[in-house]
Amino acid sequence: MTSWLKRAYVIVILLLLLAPLVVVTGVSLNGPQTLRFPPVEPSLRWYGTLFQDSAWLVPLGHSLLIAACASALSVSVALPLALFAWERNGIAARLLTGLGLAPFTLPPVISALGFMVFWMTVGGYGQIWATIVSHAVFLVTLPLVTISLGLKGIDRALLEAARVMGAGRWTVLRTVIGPLVLPFIVSGYAFAFVLSLNEYIIAYMVAGFTVETIPITIFNALRYGYTPILGVVSVLFVLLAAVVFGLIGKFGDLPRLMGSERGSSE
């Protein structure tokens, strides 16, 4: 009886999670310009429209460029910070780690307001690179956490063995630490990429309508009426996130990324 209840509970949860996606997917398949479910005159018309209309293609390009560059920048900041905290483990290391975790703990609107005031002061407001830097600072927490988890799982006896064999600091970093932490670096990049792709508040406050991203375009489109293309964008973003996290689950140490102390040691 208990097993049956657990199975029923899991099924109900899965249905609740899948229901919105099913509805949005159905809406994206409407032939006419309507948000009906079940879809009326099912068609892939709006999927073709997305990739032919510059009003959507340009923001999509902005979103992909910002997400790719911001994620790379956040990883380049998080990696040395995580290495320093792992090696030193002192007050300075804890302070730096706290600074790296701070941006993500603040409400996004507060961070966005701070970024807007800063870029207006230094003259970067409305520039795409300002949005990239802002996203990198805001999302640096994600690769910092994943890389720190990866470093925490390294057996220091391996490092001692490498040093005994004559390997220098950079050789140890390149041949021992690097390969062991690489899946966590990639995972941190992926997490930051997906969140940057979907982030709205900071992108809007820093660049406004000068550099529109897909989330900004969606909110702007809502002011003029609903079209199935909104459902198309939502479906594509969900599929992209599913692919990214699916790859992390397949090739990364997902239990440890989720905070498990065991992970790959099992």
Can you give a write-up of this model?
- Helix content is 77%, strand content 0%.
- By secondary structure, the chain is mainly α.
- It is globular and about 70 Å long.
- It starts with a helix and ends in a 9-residue tail after the last helix.
- The mean pLDDT is 82.
**Beta-strand percentage range:** under 5%
Specify the structural class.
mainly alpha
Mean pLDDT: 82
Element order: H for helix, E for strand: HHHHHHHHHHHHH
Intertermini distance = 31 Å
Count of helical regions: 13
Total strands: 0
As a percent range, the share of helical residues equals over 70%
Poorly predicted ranges (pLDDT <50, ≥5 residues)? none
Gross morphology is: globular
Rg is 22 Å
| Oligomeric description of these chains | single chain
| Biggest sheet layout | none
Secondary structure layout:
Layout: H1 2-28, H2 45-50, H3 54-88, H4 91-105, H5 108-122, H6 128-139, H7 141-152, H8 156-164, H9 169-198, H10 201-207, H11 214-222, H12 228-251, H13 254-257
Helix pairs in contact: 1-12, 3-4, 3-6, 3-7, 3-9, 3-11, 4-7, 5-10, 6-10, 7-9, 8-9, 9-12
